[in-house]
Amino acid sequence: MSLDRATMDERVPRDFETLRATILDRRESLPKRIAQIAAYALDNPDDIAFGTAASIAASAGVQPSTLIRFAQQLGFDGFTSLQQVFRERLRERNSSYDERLQALRAKAEGAAGHRAIFDGFVAAASTSLNDISRTLDDAHLEDAISLLAKAETIYVLAKRRSYPVASYIAYALGKLKIRNQLIESAAGLNAEMIAFATPADAVIAISFSPYAPATIEEARSISEQGVPIVAITDSSFSPLAQFASIWFEVAEADFAGFRSLSATMALAMALTVGVGEKRRSTGRRRKA
């Protein structure tokens, strides 16, 4: 094997997170059709994992040959090699919580005991917080706070892993006496709740890959009503980003397959308290 070939092989993404980061780093320079399949791949990784070249190309609206060019653009020798990365991601994602706990138990049985587990989660949280502190755009944050502070009602939308963040936002807004509505209903009345939103309101929507379908559909519905959305997500290719007036990209680190929400929570707290302070300074506070 030549030195050039060996160097190229070292640069080929071998796991999904590295692949995702590589695509995002190159997104501005990708040709139009390659960018189209890249966006589809990050939005629909399960389809890429087990679809055929023909079915994937049809769903993404490109020619099958574009899949090969996409793979080669990332350093793979063909689409099948790229597809293996997506299949490995699915295998890891589908590992049960029992398997994850077994991995953690193995760490705990080492010399450091359960302290090793604690330190692992602290390290993951620290990584997430350091990353968002480094990358957050100050002007972007100010724009989002200004948009939310003008809203008559702030709707909060999230499901599954993102739900604890949404719940805290709604709690904090209520304590700040800011009118808000957490979009959840045991009676299945989410659509009716969303129907009350107007362009004078605003939404905070949160979703991360693999993106809760209900969150995306409800964000789509509320955006069609002309309601501005501030989104927290993990990619410019996220389906949530396309509906958002302003969106933040948050990359959370994980430990043993359990992903941190530290950076997301820090951003959520900053937005919430920032809105409260903005309203206080302008004398515009409403009862929750």
From TrEMBL:
Gene3D superfamilies for the chain: Glucose-6-phosphate isomerase like protein, domain 1, Winged helix-like DNA-binding domain superfamily/Winged helix DNA-binding domain
Example GO biological process: carbohydrate derivative metabolic process
Gene Ontology MF term list: carbohydrate derivative binding; DNA binding; DNA-binding transcription factor activity
HTH rpiR-type domain boundaries: 17-93
Keyword DNA damage on entry: no
Keyword presence, Metal-binding: no
Pfam families in UniProt: HTH_6, SIS
Alphabetic keyword roster: DNA-binding, Transcription, Transcription regulation
SIS domain residues: 144-280
Protein name stated in the entry: DNA-binding MurR/RpiR family transcriptional regulator
